[in-house]
Specification:
alpha+beta; 444 residues; seven-stranded mixed beta sheet; OB fold (Dihydrolipoamide Acetyltransferase, E2P); 3 domains; 30% helix; globular; single chain; Chloramphenicol Acetyltransferase
Length: 444
């Protein structure tokens, strides 16, 4: 299990891309993992044959845990002179072992519950598969966390399963448990009732399926997205402003520069212009680039713009760091790179952290406008509607008016009215609109 960032202590093996006996090429995707921060495909470190799978799909194990044995030509040659010794990865050399190794955890599962109730999560983590048949993958994800989080929970007599975590599939992070302890009254901290103003325990009511219905359990990423969205609506006072923008000048500049950008390997989109306009103005309107912490406002020093990416299996928001320091082509290149790596599961944990403002672009699917939910702990999110040609009343320099065909689009910004007043939001959007309608040709 690879280390996917300094703060990542464990990972969930979500899917095997190869089965025992399959040949594997070097750097070919071997399995998928999920951590608190990101999903990723893990490539094979060498060419060979997948001889044994030690960690099953859905299991969560500490980093550096042995998850599989890959038999290579070099390994087979090295094992011939000394077939008898019991090497560290003992099950690897014998040919007869692999088939038995896979079902072994299941066979031992019935005896595991008595030795691994709630008081003993640490030994289960050490063994890696000691609770494989006792709990579902979802239950393990909800109750397992890093050793530090479990230590804090034990010291404060907190039941982790009662906390709605912001980590992967609802797993509890250090920030979650510290926030829970700070919000909860001292005596009934482990009690069943969630705090009304905090994230609390998020319950999704059960509904009885009818005959013929198809019931599809949520994926891990869908579960954490659902919990996060409900939590955000609870926490922030959502208000939205709508601004119609004339993108005709941007469309003209894009048409002129698109081929030049393509020759440099960059796809120039309307979204790049919008992200650039936001980056230029977030520094001028720091309250929109802020975060709420208890009863204080944190004004972020960095301008890091998250770009929501819709994937077949869910939604993820990679972040363009220091966006205000990038040129238009730099932002366009970052959007292309992060989007491609999100779709191919090549993002690193750092790629989706430390966002200060988010842009979501459902306009590519055709909606005129929408009202997005704030990406906590940020205080604002910009939604981009479809950009298309529409009739528009235009005023000439001499004051005469006419109806012309213009490239129009709607920008919607949801903001947290606890700290962002309507005037603050509208001034920011007005400046974004002005820059887009008067975008300098020299900046393209």
């Amino acid at each position: 299990m690879p280390q996917m960032g300094e703060s990542i202590a464990e990972g969930t093996l979500s899917k095997w891309l190869k089965k025992v006996g399959d040949p594997v090429k070097r750097d070919e995707p071997l399995f998928e993992i999920s951590t608190d921060k990101v999903d990723a495909e893990i490539p094979a470190p060498a060419a060979g044959v997948l001889a044994e799978i030690k960690v099953q799909e859905g299991q969560t194990v500490p980093v550096q845990t042995l998850v599989a044995v890959l038999e290579t030509d070099a390994g087979a040659t090295a094992s011939k002179p000394a077939p008898a010794p019991a090497a560290a990865p003992a099950p690897a050399p014998p040919k007869a072992e692999p088939p038995k190794a896979v079902p072994a955890p299941r066979a031992q599962a019935p005896s595991a519950p008595p030795s691994a109730p709630a008081p003993a999560p640490a030994p289960a983590l050490k063994s890696g598969d000691g609770d494989g048949g006792v709990q579902t993958a979802e239950q393990r994800l909800r109750t397992k966390s890093t050793p530090l989080v479990r230590k804090i929970a034990a010291e404060h007599s907190v039941d982790i399963s009662r906390i709605a975590g912001s980590g992967y599939a609802g797993r509890v992070t250090k920030q979650d448990i510290l926030g829970y302890i700070e919000r909860a009254p001292a005596a009934p901290a482990p009690g069943p009732r969630p705090q009304p103003q905090g994230p609390g325990a998020i319950e999704h009511p059960a509904v009885e399926p009818w005959p013929g219905d198809r019931v599809e359990p949520w994926s891990k990423i869908r579960k954490i997205t659902a919990d996060h969205m409900v939590m955000s609506r609870r926490v922030s006072a959502h208000v939205a402003s709508f601004f119609e923008v004339d993108f005709t000048r941007v469309a003209q500049l894009r048409a002129k520069a698109k081929q030049t950008y393509a020759e440099r390997g960059v796809n120039l989109t309307f979204l790049a212009f919008i992200a650039k306009a936001c980056a230029e103005n977030l520094r001028k309107h720091p309250i929109v680039n802020a975060a709420v912490s208890a009863d204080s406002t944190i004004y972020r020093a960095d301008v890091n713009i998250g770009i929501a990416v819709a994937l077949d299996w869910g939604l993820i928001v990679p972040v363009i760091k220091h966006a205000d320091e990038l040129s238009l082509i730099g932002i366009a290149r970052a959007i292309n790179d992060l989007g491609e790596r999100a779709r191919t599961k090549k993002l690193l944990p750092d790629d989706i952290q430390r966002g200060t403002f988010t842009i979501t672009n459902p306009g590519g699917f055709g909606p005129f406008a929408g009202i997005p939910i704030i990406n906590q702990p940020q205080v604002a999110i910009l939604g981009v509607g479809t950009i298309e040609k529409r009739p528009k009343v235009v005023t000439a320099a001499d004051g005469t008016e006419s109806i012309a065909i213009r490239t129009m689009g709607m920008l919607t910004m949801s903001y947290d009215h606890r700290v962002v007043d309507g005037a603050d939001a509208d001034k920011f959007l007005a400046d974004v609109k002005k820059l887009l309608q008067e975008f300098p040709e020299g900046a393209v």
